[in-house]
Each structure stands twice: as C-alpha cells, then as structure tokens.
Amino acid sequence: MELFDVGFVTVRLVDILDISIVTFLFYLVYDKLRGSLALRITGVIISTFVLWKVVDLLDFRLLGTILQEFLGLGALAVVIIFAPEIRRFLSAISKNTLLDRIIRQVSPRLETNSTSREVIDALKTLRATGNGALIVFAGQSDLGEIMESGDALDANITARLIYSLFQKESPLHDGAMILENNRIAAVRTILPVSKREGLDPELGLRHRSALGLAEVTDALVIIASEERRELSMAYHGELQRNVDYQDIEDAVKAHYAWEKSS
Q1: What pLDDT was estimated at residue 121?
Q2: pLDDT in tens, 129-157
Q3: Band of the pLDDT at 255, cuts 50, 70, 90?
Q4: What angle do CA 204, 154, 243 make, to 5 degrees?
Q5: CB of 132 within 8 A of CB of 225?
Q6: Which residues are 235's β-sheet partners?
Q7: In the structure, what pLDDT confidence band is assigned to residue 192 with cuts at 50, 70 and 90?
Q8: Which of 56, 115, 134, 232 is most buried per CB count within 10 Å?
Q9: Cα dihedral 190, 133, 165, 255 in deg (nearest 10)
Q10: Measuring CA to CA, which residue among 204, 223, 114, 241 is closest to residue 166?
Q11: Are 51 and 64 a contacting pair, CB within 8 Å?
C-alpha cells in the first residue's frame, strides 16, 4: 500500500513496518550491549557497512570489494570473539518474552520486603563486627558466567546465613554473593572490575568490582566496607557512597519494581 511520496521515493506501509522492526532490533542490541566493548565493535561494523553501501552506490569497485571482504571476515571474527556476549544477549532476549513478563507479574518470588529486611539486618551485624560484604541483587541481565566463577548455592535469604558467609573465617567470604529469584544463588563469585578513569583512588576492589558489574548489567550491588564500615551502592553504572539503610531498602524496592515492570 503506497502512502506518500518523498521526492522520487514512494513510501509504502510495508516500508514503515520494515523500518520500525529494524529500529526495534537495533534498540535491543544497544540496550543489551550498552557499556560493553561489543557495542563499540558493533558500531565500527555498522559504520563500515554504511560506508560500503555508499561506496557501492558510487560504483567504487576496488574499494567496495575490499570493504565487502572486510565485512565478511569481520562478521566471522565477531562471532568467534564475542561468543559469550552473543550467548548472553540471546538468553536475555529469550527471557524478555510476553509469557515471561506475565509469569513475573504473578510470581511470588519477588518478596521484596522480606529480602531487603534480611539483607539489612545482616549488614547491620557485619558493620558492627567490621566485616566487609559484596551483595548482588540480580536483575534481568544474565549473570550465569559470573555465578559459574564462584560456588553455586540455593538457600533461603536470611540475615544469619548472610552474616555467616561473610565471616573472615568462612572459606566462602571472598567475592560477591548473588541473590536471584529470592534465593542466595551463588557465593564467592568474581565480578568484572571497572576500568573507568577518574575514580577515587581510595576505592578498593569491592567498590570497583561493584561498579564494574553495574556498568555492564542491570544488577543492584551493595558494598559494605570493611575498613571504613560505610555502605555503598552501585546501580546502572553509578556508585553511591555513604548510603544508609533506608537508601538501601528504597533501592531494593525500586530495583524489583523496575524488574517487574520491564
């Protein structure tokens, strides 16, 4: 069905539908790869593709052939190099189905009040005894590889258990604890460290790891500092220091509300 003309180009209904689908797919790719190296590489490939189309339109045969070969090899290299990121992206897409959203709406797993209360009670005890902690509230991003770096656990979230696991004498106290589906899913996990420039040089590995995860996923990360006994949060690529318990409770509720609506 022809809708209108723009110059010598006739715009059809199917063209608008085509552009809308492509735009949506590009948005999904951007949203899932935001802040990662894969996104920058994807940008280079798209730019090269656009340049190749322009060169082809101008009938520059030699340059067009070179760019075409580059794109062919580049696509293969990207699949090999970024296989883990592609797997996580496809997993995230498959989890964001309409059925999954409906299930999440009615699922009882988001027992926000109980979870935040137990975590905060544990943080109070950990601060009082001078123990550090790194606690991750999983979001929609796939944390499978990160959980595989530690020890899998499937336990109820209780203040007593969290406190016990972060005791220095515990063989599981190093690394981060992952909370997922209202369960303690993994402990002793290794988080990606932020490479951001200009960070406070006083920030330790816990803070940099929390920020690193928040930069590449939608997880909410709580940090209990061992030396200063201060609490911090990392979320959506930002680090907040010297937060109090009410800030944490509000952030957990907002995190779960956002997850439920997304």
Answers
A1: 93
A2: 989 999 999 988 888 889 989 999 889 99
A3: confident
A4: 35
A5: yes
A6: 238
A7: very high
A8: 134
A9: -80
A10: 223
A11: no
Specify the DSSP class assigned to residue 127: H
What CA–CA distances, in Å, run from 25 to 17, 157, 215? 12, 37, 22
Residue that has been written with the tokens 């997922």 in this structure: 180
DSSP 141: S
146, exposed or middle or buried, with CB in 10 Å at 0-12, 13-18, 19+?
A: buried
Closest CA to 204 of 247, 234, 170: 234
**Would you say 186 and 159 are in contact if contact means Cβ atoms under 8 Å apart?**
no
Cβ neighbours of 220 (radius 10 Å): 26
The mean pLDDT of the chain is 81
Altogether, the residues listed in the chain come to a count of 262
Residue type, position 135, single letter: I
Please state, in angstroms and rounded to a whole number, the distance separating the CA atoms of residues 138 and 256.
9
The tokens describing 24, both together, are: 């949506």
Calculate ∠ Cα 216-217-220, nearest 5°.
125
Give 225's contacts (C-beta < 8 A, 6+ positions apart). Answer: 132, 204, 206, 207, 231, 232
Tokens 């402990």 appear where?
Answer: 187
CA separation, residue 193 to residues 166, 220, 251, 255 (Å): 20, 15, 22, 22
